[in-house]
């Protein structure tokens, strides 16, 4: 068997991080190839190189110009050189190109992960619904993620991370004389709602909390808008805009709390990474998040009370640490990458047998 992961990009988002984790698990024993449609958003390229994972960039920047044809030809050349291929398509455009290949060239089994519980475009929802017969299996993160366009042949498999790699080297503490570090880890785009942190910082200051900083690790289209908002509100000393980082472990280690003010999500890898690092979490209840986060193991809150939860973590950090320890215990086995990959492998093997 050859596993081919077809992803929209090799950027630093949760979907791409999951592709990397799955490829790392399989690469030692099963030939694994990672293919990115885009050749521009490739922030994780060096990570694939470090782990000797074969990868290719197709250079498809639009489904409406010649790059689609050239990319499709490159994809055909890669797949034609292999036998017993399972194609795991990630995100909508990854599936779309895989479907075109399947219809035009060779009937290979397609496994699909959307990596989000929300699609705003109804046309895309309809496309995924109508093309269900062409997919052997849809992987969703929880039962609540089984939307009408993903209900047939859905297998519930959560995202996963390497818990050993992310284990904290020392116990987390916070003293009133310290600077409290909130960590925003993810893309700067509409979905992730980074501007919420500007409003939250203003609310913390109104409550006489001054010794805090919010570290932003990640890049995206809202970078300039975020910086302008921070500067126009005279909040620069409370923010560090650090851009995309290949290694997030130091930022998880030094932070006191992870914040995720997303408007919509699938199952964010960053939350599992924070849980593995025993880092307290404040998050909105979107996507599959409420299926494993609750008020006993994290701070799950709507946007209008998001800042209040941040204040709660700051004012009673011992309780926050108790919650993070409980979350770690509850999810370690389920979200451990070794166990998550074993479930994926079973899906791949079944897909080949029934193709």
From TrEMBL:
Stored Pfam families: Glyco_transf_4, Glycos_transf_1
EC number(s) stated in the UniProt entry for this protein: 2.4.-.-
Glycosyl transferase family domain: residues covered: 176-317
InterPro entries: Glyco_trans_1, Glyco_trans_4-like_N
Keywords (A to Z) from UniProt: Glycosyltransferase, Transferase
Alphabetized GO MF terms: glycosyltransferase activity
All residue ranges annotated as the Glycosyltransferase subfamily 4-like N-terminal domain in the record: 13-164
Protein's UniProt name: Glycosyltransferase
Top-level taxon of origin: Bacteria
Membrane spanning stretches: none
């Amino acid at each position: 068997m050859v596993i081919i992961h077809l992803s929209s990009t090799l950027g630093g988002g949760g979907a791409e991080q999951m592709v990397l984790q799955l490829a790392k698990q399989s690469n030692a024993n099963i030939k694994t190839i990672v293919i990115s449609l885009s050749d521009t958003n490739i922030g994780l390229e060096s990570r694939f190189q470090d782990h000797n994972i074969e990868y290719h960039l197709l250079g498809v920047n639009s489904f409406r110009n010649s790059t689609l044809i050239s990319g499709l030809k490159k994809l055909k050349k890669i797949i034609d050189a292999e036998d017993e291929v399972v194609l795991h398509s990630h995100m909508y455009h990854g599936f779309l190109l895989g479907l075109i290949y399947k219809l035009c060239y060779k009937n290979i089994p397609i496994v699909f992960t959307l990596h989000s519980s929300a699609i705003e475009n109804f046309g895309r929802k309809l496309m995924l619904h109508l093309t269900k017969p062409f997919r052997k299996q849809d992987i969703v993160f929880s039962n609540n993620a089984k939307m009408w366009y993903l209900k047939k042949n859905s297998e519930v498999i959560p995202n996963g991370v390497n818990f050993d790699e992310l284990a904290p080297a020392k116990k987390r503490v916070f003293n009133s004389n310290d600077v409290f570090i909130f960590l925003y880890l993810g893309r700067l785009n509409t979905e992730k709602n980074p501007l919420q942190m500007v409003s939250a910082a203003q609310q913390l200051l109104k409550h006489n909390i001054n010794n805090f900083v919010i570290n932003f690790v990640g890049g995206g289209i809202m970078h300039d808008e975020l910086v302008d908002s921070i500067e126009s509100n005279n909040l620069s000393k409370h923010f560090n805009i650090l851009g995309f980082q290949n290694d997030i472990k130091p930022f998880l280690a030094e932070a006191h709390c992870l914040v995720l003010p997303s408007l919509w999500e699938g199952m964010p890898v960053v939350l599992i990474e924070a849980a593995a690092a025993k880092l307290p979490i404040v998050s909105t209840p979107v996507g599959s998040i409420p299926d494993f986060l609750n008020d006993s193991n994290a701070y799950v809150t709507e946007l209008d009370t998001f800042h209040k939860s941040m204040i709660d973590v700051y004012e009673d950090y011992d309780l926050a640490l108790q919650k993070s320890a409980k979350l770690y215990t509850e999810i370690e086995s389920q979200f451990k990458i070794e166990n998550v990959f074993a479930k994926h492998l079973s899906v791949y093997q079944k897909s080949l047998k029934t193709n």
